[in-house]
Design brief:
- The chain has about 325 residues and is α+β, with helices and mostly antiparallel strands.
- It has 2 domains: about 25-155 and about 260-325, MutS, DNA mismatch repair protein, Chain A, domain 3 (Orthogonal Bundle); about 170-250, MutS, DNA mismatch repair protein, Chain A, domain 3 (Orthogonal Bundle).
- About 60% of the residues lie in helices and about 5% in strands.
- The chain is built from 17 helices and 4 strands.
- A 4-stranded antiparallel sheet has the order 1-2-4-3.
- Strand 1 and strand 2 (about 205-210) form a beta hairpin.
- Helix 3 crosses helix 15 (about 270-285), helix 7 crosses helix 10 (about 135-140) and helix 8 (about 105-115) packs antiparallel against helix 9 (about 120-125).
- It starts with a helix and ends in a 7-residue tail after the last helix.
């Protein structure tokens, strides 16, 4: 069809250049934007071969009994095409990778539902879906279940993925436990029951001993501050912990960025496989919520010969015309 015909038919854009009401706007209840893009492509490039059209009608007809199950299995599916492109450009955000992980994890459920179906097209699409993608295991190990929106905020890399990162996080959250343990050890070592291990933002970490007990401190205590009734000290162990704790947040953020960049490099070899998965996946997401009117049309011809497929196509056109008219604004008389 030429451009003028497409515009007059208002397939994806009205004559005024608006996105709705159009045939695409009424048909598009796809699960993802990649399904919506595919639907618009189908509308502009309709199937003209009778044999291919028959295969598609058989596939949609076979989906009728399990439509609700397919709908449920495809709930977590994201736009794999777009995410794969971002991974290739190394511009994918943490939640893109989380969405990719959850989408790929749904592969086995859809494959299990589709394999028993007799429609050849569905079997071909199911065959392109792997049982389990290795990307899922990698992302499950590397990315938190609900990561931060931005990498610079931290909270992206999963616990247990990097021992160094876990240690830096522990320094931020478990300072209190370390100080209590150190205080108990130092009381036992020095015999000073009033000894305290504390922290403030001005002087950092310190061991506080009263003036009366200051002459009993060990040789490795270094004076940090003198008060009216107390002396404050620091030990090599406490100094080492202080250096780690005060810089732990900045170091953790820097390490998370390094690990995230390395993860994108690890995903690079899987990009061709992800593209192959996305091709059948966008078809499934486009089929996820076909309008009930189309289902009704095909159901009427379920026991008919495949030559009646053209009747279904004409029924879609008849279904579209009154709905397009009804969706137009009413002009007052």
């Amino acid at each position: 069809m030429d451009a003028a015909t497409r515009r007059n038919l208002e397939l994806t854009e009205t004559i005024r250049g608006e996105p709705s009401p159009t045939l695409a706007s009424l048909l598009d209840t796809c699960a993802t934007s990649m399904g919506s893009r595919l639907l618009r492509h189908w509308l502009h490039h309709p199937i003209r071969q009778h044999g291919k059209l028959t295969r598609w009608l058989e596939a949609v007809r076979a989906l009728l009994p399990i439509h609700a199950d397919i709908h449920q299995a495809l709930r977590p599916v994201a736009d794999i095409e777009r995410i794969t492109a971002r991974v290739a450009l190394k511009s994918a955000r943490p939640r893109d990778l989380a969405a990719l992980r959850d989408s790929l994890a749904a592969l086995s459920a859809v494959k299990t539902l589709a394999e028993p179906l007799e429609a050849p097209l569905l079997q071909e699409l199911a065959a392109l879906l792997p049982e389990q993608s290795p990307v899922v295991a990698l992302l499950q190990a590397a990315i938190l279940q609900e990561p931060s929106v931005l990498l610079r905020e931290g909270g992206v890399i999963n616990h247990g993925y990097s021992a160094n990162l876990d240690e830096l996080r522990a320094l931020q959250t478990d300072c209190g436990d370390f100080l209590l343990q150190l205080e108990a050890r130092e009381k036992a070592r020095t015999g000073i029951s009033t000894l305290k291990v504390e922290f403030n933002r001005v002087h950092g970490f310190y061991i506080e001993v009263s003036k009366a007990q200051s002459e009993h401190v060990p040789d490795d205590y270094r004076r940090r501050q003198t008060l009216k009734n107390a002396e404050r000290y620091i030990t090599p162990e406490l100094k080492e912990f202080e250096d780690k704790a005060l810089s732990a947040q900045d170091r953790a953020l820097a390490l998370e960025k390094q690990l995230y960049d390395a993860l994108l490099d690890q995903l690079a070899p899987f990009i061709p496989d992800l593209k192959l998965i996305a091709r059948p996946w966008r078809v499934w997401t486009c089929w996820r919520r076909l309008p009930s009117a189309l289902f009704s049309t095909i159901t009427l011809n379920r026991n008919s010969s495949t030559t009646h497929g053209w009747r279904s196509s004409m029924a879609v056109i008849r279904w579209w015309k009154p709905r397009s008219s009804a969706s137009l604004p009413t002009t007052p008389a």
